[in-house]
């Protein structure tokens, strides 16, 4: 059984990448054969190495006319100090190298090991809001097992909730009886607000709690921007839409503010400029 987690590559989301990496035993480093090693490639390799993960380099898009496979291999060795012979050549579009990638995962990445903690330890590496089920939390179980009906404590939020449902992805979510140590999946519980779930938090048994898994940090905005409605009558509508965006993006922060020139609006915090652009586009489109 293989559990694969896709992470964003952009530097704005480096904390989410680090939490996803901490849920894994290895990482596929996908490099574009046409563009080669980029700045965020180096940053993500450093994150993976800091977690002591096995790294499998994959050179993708080898089918493109302007692909420079030899040049990309050279960059892997010179910039990242990764042997070029370890690279798997692939094309996701043409289906080239897919079996080689899967075989490399089986051969090179170690199996999950239990932490030896006294009770349940599960890492939260992502979450989203579902209008019917509330907050759906993505987790990796390090020790013990998770099943519906038990209570779990979120150590950093200091909240105890009852698990309603657990499941995995294949690739769509499907319900399961339990999640055992080494497995990834999702859980739903009596959690109504995404602000109650912190990425990197540890879930454990409230009766006999284990130590928190290392690496947790509070997400703090790095870029701030004021957002004001053109028509002051749209203020409440803008406020409602910002609240909906925050339901699916716990890293997005906003608070009301006022300006003599612009009237009533909101001071918003983002992880970076790309995050800001994504929120702006979603406000326009949705």
TrEMBL record:
Is the keyword Isomerase assigned to this protein?
Answer: no
**Gene3D superfamilies of this UniProt entry?**
Elongation Factor G (Translational Gtpase), domain 3, P-loop containing nucleotide triphosphate hydrolases, Translation factors
Q: The Tr-type G domain covers which part of the protein?
A: 1-113
Q: Which UniProt keywords apply?
A: GTP-binding, Hydrolase, Nucleotide-binding
Q: Which family does it belong to?
A: Belongs to the TRAFAC class translation factor GTPase superfamily. Classic translation factor GTPase family. LepA subfamily.
Q: Name one GO molecular function term.
A: GTP binding
Name a single GO biological process: positive regulation of translation
Under the heading InterPro entries, the entry gives: EF-4, EFG_III/V, EFTu-like_2, P-loop_NTPase, Small_GTP-bd, T_Tr_GTP-bd_dom, Transl_B-barrel_sf
Protein name as annotated? Tr-type G domain-containing protein
Q: What organism is recorded for this protein?
A: marine metagenome
SUPFAM superfamilies in the record, alphabetically? EF-G C-terminal domain-like, P-loop containing nucleoside triphosphate hydrolases, Translation proteins
Is Hydrolase found in the keyword set?
Answer: yes
Name the Pfam families for this protein. GTP_EFTU, GTP_EFTU_D2
């Amino acid at each position: 059984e293989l559990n694969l987690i896709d992470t964003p590559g952009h530097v704005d989301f480096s904390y989410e990448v680090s939490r996803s990496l901490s849920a894994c035993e290895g990482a596929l480093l996908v490099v574009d054969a046409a563009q080669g090693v980029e700045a965020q490639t180096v940053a993500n390799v450093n994150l993976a190495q800091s977690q002591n993960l096995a790294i499998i380099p994959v050179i993708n898009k080898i089918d493109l006319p302007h692909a420079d496979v030899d040049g990309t291999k050279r960059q892997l060795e010179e910039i990242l100090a990764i042997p070029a012979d370890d690279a798997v050549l692939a094309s996701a579009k043409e289906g080239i190298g897919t079996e080689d990638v899967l075989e490399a995962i089986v051969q090179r990445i170690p199996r999950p090991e239990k932490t030896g903690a006294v009770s349940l330890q599960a890492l939260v590496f992502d979450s989203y809001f579902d209008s019917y089920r509330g907050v759906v939390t993505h987790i990796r179980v390090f020790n013990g097992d998770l099943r519906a009906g038990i209570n779990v404590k979120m150590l950093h939020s200091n909240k105890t909730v009852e698990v309603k449902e657990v499941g995995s992805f294949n690739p769509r979510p499907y319900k399961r009886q339990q999640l055992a140590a080494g497995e990834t999946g999702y859980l739903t519980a009596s959690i109504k607000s995404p602000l109650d779930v912190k990425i990197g938090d540890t879930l454990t048994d409230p009766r006999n709690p284990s130590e928190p898994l290392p690496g947790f940090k509070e997400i703090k905005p790095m870029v701030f921007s004021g957002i004001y409605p053109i028509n002051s009558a749209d203020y409440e509508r803008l406020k409602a839409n910002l609240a909906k965006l925050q339901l699916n993006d716990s890293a997005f922060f906003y608070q009301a503010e006022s300006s003599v020139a612009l009237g009533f609006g909101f001071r918003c915090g983002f992880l970076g400029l790309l995050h800001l652009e994504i929120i702006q586009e979603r406000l326009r489109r949705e």
